[in-house]
């Protein structure tokens, strides 16, 4: 989006000039789904679909938020208001949580006046591309820069996760916030969510590109079975800890899980643990395959990820399965799978550039025939993390 247009929109809403413009990207995850809160590896990247914010200071303690994507009123609250919003203004909780937790820090008293914030998203809400994490990291970087806070990007990612977990009530891991704020152009991040060690790996896909496929079935993770999956994995871990000295499922491989599976002895919990463990191993192997330029192997592992998410984790559903399984049958496709929490949202496919138009046409038609409404397709560049522009 054009910076001047955004500043102009801010002035139309608030009747004065905005001072700074920021951008916070969404994310895709090449592979490694539902592994972050299980202490495993993930391989995400920040994308050019995201959320813009125009900031302007106020002299009082009022915070005024306006979304250019919602035909609604300006949402107003006091700087020290840490109540959780319900209903139509639920989206403001991602800002409120970050303000609340940053003001609790040692230098939080630097946030000593209110502000106006105009936001405009190119990231579809509920698309499984981490719009909530993008909002949190947008607020984090704005507060860090405008109030000169001594807070690192990693700390902001952790506060974003805390906002999800404690303020909003979703027991998610740290991958989404980490990817949004730590993204690097043309690279994915190989992150160990147990140790928080990470490496940037160039996303070298040659004649192929990543196409995002949105189901257009909105999912709200906080209202979904997401927290159930976290709890099921937690119970499986607790049972394994009777015989293993581990802190997370990501610490073991399939052979170890197989050997100690008698400790779990519950069909559902065993399936959840099997996904968490196998997906972590797949992620490690897939990252190595990409480094070795073995894109066919990378594609097969991406397909296997979807199968595991379908059968062992049971978070796909008709819409995501239709996209992934139809994609597998198309010419020039290396791999496809659902991404994000599941139950709607989006999938990705790695497609030969010369076949991209035909791919979208064929998958779009099949989706329309089976599901009954349109899917959307996005070509996204891999970009840097949240920043002032």
TrEMBL record:
<keyword id="KW-0963">Cytoplasm</keyword>
<dbReference type="InterPro" id="IPR019741">
    <property type="entry name" value="Galactokinase_CS"/>
</dbReference>
<keyword id="KW-0067">ATP-binding</keyword>
<dbReference type="Pfam" id="PF00288">
    <property type="entry name" value="GHMP_kinases_N"/>
</dbReference>
<feature type="binding site">
    <location>
        <position position="164"/>
    </location>
    <ligand>
        <name>Mg(2+)</name>
    </ligand>
</feature>
<feature type="domain" description="Galactokinase N-terminal">
    <location>
        <begin position="9"/>
        <end position="56"/>
    </location>
</feature>
<dbReference type="GO" id="GO:0004335">
    <property type="term" value="F:galactokinase activity"/>
</dbReference>
<comment type="function">
    <text>Catalyzes the transfer of the gamma-phosphate of ATP to D-galactose to form alpha-D-galactose-1-phosphate (Gal-1-P).</text>
</comment>
<keyword id="KW-0808">Transferase</keyword>
<comment type="similarity">
    <text>Belongs to the GHMP kinase family. GalK subfamily.</text>
</comment>
<dbReference type="InterPro" id="IPR000705">
    <property type="entry name" value="Galactokinase"/>
</dbReference>
<comment type="pathway">
    <text>Carbohydrate metabolism; galactose metabolism.</text>
</comment>
<dbReference type="InterPro" id="IPR013750">
    <property type="entry name" value="GHMP_kinase_C_dom"/>
</dbReference>
<keyword id="KW-0460">Magnesium</keyword>
<keyword id="KW-0547">Nucleotide-binding</keyword>
<dbReference type="InterPro" id="IPR014721">
    <property type="entry name" value="Ribsml_uS5_D2-typ_fold_subgr"/>
</dbReference>
<feature type="binding site">
    <location>
        <position position="132"/>
    </location>
    <ligand>
        <name>Mg(2+)</name>
    </ligand>
</feature>
<keyword id="KW-0418">Kinase</keyword>
<feature type="site" description="Transition state stabilizer">
    <location>
        <position position="27"/>
    </location>
</feature>
<dbReference type="InterPro" id="IPR006204">
    <property type="entry name" value="GHMP_kinase_N_dom"/>
</dbReference>
<dbReference type="InterPro" id="IPR020568">
    <property type="entry name" value="Ribosomal_Su5_D2-typ_SF"/>
</dbReference>
<keyword id="KW-0299">Galactose metabolism</keyword>
<keyword id="KW-0119">Carbohydrate metabolism</keyword>
<dbReference type="InterPro" id="IPR036554">
    <property type="entry name" value="GHMP_kinase_C_sf"/>
</dbReference>
<dbReference type="Pfam" id="PF10509">
    <property type="entry name" value="GalKase_gal_bdg"/>
</dbReference>
<dbReference type="InterPro" id="IPR006203">
    <property type="entry name" value="GHMP_knse_ATP-bd_CS"/>
</dbReference>
<feature type="domain" description="GHMP kinase N-terminal">
    <location>
        <begin position="93"/>
        <end position="184"/>
    </location>
</feature>
<dbReference type="InterPro" id="IPR022963">
    <property type="entry name" value="Galactokinase_bac"/>
</dbReference>
<protein>
    <recommendedName>
        <fullName>Galactokinase</fullName>
        <ecNumber>2.7.1.6</ecNumber>
    </recommendedName>
</protein>
<feature type="active site" description="Proton acceptor">
    <location>
        <position position="176"/>
    </location>
</feature>
<dbReference type="InterPro" id="IPR006206">
    <property type="entry name" value="Mevalonate/galactokinase"/>
</dbReference>
<feature type="binding site">
    <location>
        <begin position="33"/>
        <end position="36"/>
    </location>
    <ligand>
        <name>substrate</name>
    </ligand>
</feature>
<feature type="binding site">
    <location>
        <position position="67"/>
    </location>
    <ligand>
        <name>ATP</name>
    </ligand>
</feature>
<dbReference type="InterPro" id="IPR019539">
    <property type="entry name" value="GalKase_N"/>
</dbReference>
<feature type="binding site">
    <location>
        <position position="226"/>
    </location>
    <ligand>
        <name>substrate</name>
    </ligand>
</feature>
<keyword id="KW-0479">Metal-binding</keyword>
<feature type="binding site">
    <location>
        <begin position="126"/>
        <end position="132"/>
    </location>
    <ligand>
        <name>ATP</name>
    </ligand>
</feature>
<feature type="domain" description="GHMP kinase C-terminal">
    <location>
        <begin position="288"/>
        <end position="368"/>
    </location>
</feature>
<dbReference type="Pfam" id="PF08544">
    <property type="entry name" value="GHMP_kinases_C"/>
</dbReference>
């Amino acid at each position: 989006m054009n910076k001047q247009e955004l500043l102009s929109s801010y002035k139309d809403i608030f009747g004065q000039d905005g001072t700074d413009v920021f951008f916070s990207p969404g994310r895709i995850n090449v592979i490694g789904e539902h592994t972050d809160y299980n202490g495993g590896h993930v391989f995400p990247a920040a994308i050019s679909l995201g959320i813009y914010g125009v900031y302007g200071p106020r002299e009082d303690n009022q915070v005024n938020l306006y979304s250019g994507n919602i035909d609604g009123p300006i949402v107003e609250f006091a700087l020290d208001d840490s109540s959780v919003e319900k209903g139509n203004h639920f989206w403001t909780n991602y800002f409120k949580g970050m303000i609340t937790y940053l003001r609790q820090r040692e230098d939080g008293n630097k946030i000593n006046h209110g502000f106006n914030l105009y936001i405009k998203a190119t990231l579809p809400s509920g698309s499984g591309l981490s719009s909530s994490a993008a909002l949190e990291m947008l607020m984090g970087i704005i507060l860090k820069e405008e109030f000169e806070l001594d807070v690192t990007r990693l700390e902001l990612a952790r506060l974003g996760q805390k906002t999800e977990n404690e303020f909003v009530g979703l027991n998610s891991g740290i991958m989404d916030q980490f990817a949004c704020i730590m993204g690097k152009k043309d690279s994915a991040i190989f992150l160990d969510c147990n140790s928080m060690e990470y490496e940037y790996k160039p996303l070298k896909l040659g004649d192929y590109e990543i196409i995002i496929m949105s189901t257009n079935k909105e999912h709200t993770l906080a209202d979904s079975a997401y927290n159930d999956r976290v709890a099921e994995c937690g119970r499986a871990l607790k049972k394994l800890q009777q015989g293993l000295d581990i802190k997370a499922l990501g610490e073991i491989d399939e052979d170890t899980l197989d050997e100690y599976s008698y400790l779990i002895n519950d069909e559902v919990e065993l399936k959840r643990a099997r996904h968490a463990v196998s997906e972590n191993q797949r992620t490690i192997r897939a990252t190595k395959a990409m480094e070795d330029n073995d894109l066919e192997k990378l594609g097969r592992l991406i397909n296997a990820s979807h199968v595991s998410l379908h059968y062992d984790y049971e978070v796909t559903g008709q819409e995501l399965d239709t996209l992934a399984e139809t994609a597998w049958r198309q010419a020039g496709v290396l791999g496809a799978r659902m991404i994000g929490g599941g139950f709607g949202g989006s999938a990705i496919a790695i497609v030969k550039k010369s076949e991209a138009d035909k791919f979208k046409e064929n998958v779009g038609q099949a989706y329309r025939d089976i599901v009954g409404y349109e899917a959307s397709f996005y070509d996204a560049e891999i970009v840097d993390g949240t920043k002032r522009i």
